[in-house]
Amino acid sequence: MPRNAIYPRALQYLIAIDDYGTYTRAAEVLHVSQPTLSQQIKQLEDSLNSMLVDRSGRNVHLTDAGQLYVRHARRALSEIEAGTRAIHDVHDLSRGSLRLGWTPITDHLTCSLLSKFNSRYPGLSIATLEMSQDDIETAIIEDVIELGIVFSKPITESDHSSELESFMLFEETLFFAFGHSHPRAGQLKQMDVSDCNRESLVLLNRNFALRRHVDAYCTEHKISPRISMETNSLSVIIELIQMGPLATILPSTIIKKSSGLKAIEVVPSLPKHAVSLVWHKGRYKNPACRAFLEMASDWSARLIHEHRMM
Fold it and tell me: Is residue 3 part of a domain?
C-alpha cells in the first residue's frame, strides 16, 4: 500500500471517533469490530506519519494534528458523497431525489408547483424542510438542500450573494387579514395607515422575511400596532385569525385560499414582494433539480400570464 493512500473508510472511522469519543461506540455505530476500526486508524496514521488519536485516557481524543485533519476529512467526504449522487443519478427521472427548503409562507404559495412536479415525476423523492430564509441560504451553501423557495429579500442583499443565483417566480401583494368575528369584518373601504395603531396583530417572528418587511413598513409610516403574539407557524396564525379578534398581514393568495379570512387594503399600500427560487451558482445540479427548475420556469410564466389577464 502506498504511504499516501488514504481511503474514505478510514476517514469515516476517524470522524466517528471524533463524534463519539470511544473506539467502542464508534465501532458500534459503524457496524464494524473494534480491532478493524483500530487497525484502519493505525494505517491512516502510518500513511500520514503523524499521530491522529490520543489513546492515553479512558476516552480517546484527537490530537491537534487529528483535529486539523478531520476538518479536511469531513469536507472531503461531503464532496465524495456529492460525486456518488452525481454518478448514480438516473437521467430518465424514474428515480432520484430533490432536497428543497421553503418558508412557512412560500410553502403555502408554491404547493401547487410541487404537486405538479410530483405528478409528472412520481418516481422522484422530494424532501422538504421548512426554515427561515436566512437558514435556507445557509443550507444551500452547506449542501443540505439543493433549492430554496424564498419570500422577498433580494439575493443581492444577502451575505451569500456571490455564491447564490435566483429566479423570481411571481410577486405577491400584502394585505391586512381579519376573521369574521373581527369588528372590521364587514368593512368595505380601505384602512388608513393610522388605523393600524388600533389593531392587535399575530405575526411570524423576526427570523422570517415577511415579518422584517412588516416591521420596515411600520417604521417607514411611523405606526406601532400592538404585537399580541409571535409564532413560526403560518397555520397557527390563520387559525387564530379565524377564531378571534386578532389581525395579521399576509400575501393576498394565502388570504384568498383560507376560509374565514377577509383582506383589507391599507393606504399607503403594503409593498409587493417576490417569491423566488434560489440555488448555488457553481454546484452540480442533478437531473431532478434541473427538471424542477425547468418546470418552475414554465409554471411561473403561466401564473404571471393568468394574473395579467385577470
Answer: no
Coil vs helix vs strand at 176: strand
Mark whether 162 and 205 lie in a shared domain: yes
- Model-wide pTM > 0.90: no
Q: What is the DSSP string of 234-270?
A: HHHHHHHHHHSS-EEEEEHHHHHHSTTEEEE-EESPP
Contact by Cβ (8 Å): 111, 169: no
- Residue 268 pLDDT greater than 50, yes or no: yes
Give yes or no: residues 228 and 292 share one domain: yes
DSSP string covering the chain: --TT---HHHHHHHHHHHHHSSHHHHHHHHTS-HHHHHHHHHHHHHHHTS--EE-SSSS-EE-HHHHHHHHHHHHHHHHHHHHHHHHH--TTSSS-EEEEEE-TTHHHHHHHHHHHHHHH-TTSEEEEEE--HHHHHHHHHTTS-SEEEEES--GGGSTTGGGEEEEEEEEEEEEEEEETTSTTTT--SPEEGGGGGG-EEEEE-TTSHHHHHHHHHHHHTT---EEEEEES-HHHHHHHHHHSS-EEEEEHHHHHHSTTEEEE-EESPPPEEEEEEEEESSS---HHHHHHHHHHHHHHHHHHHHHHH-
* Residue 164 and residue 82 share a domain: no
What range defines the domain where residue 34 resides? Answer: 8-88
pLDDT in tens, 133-172: 889 999 999 999 999 999 865 444 555 568 899 999 998 8
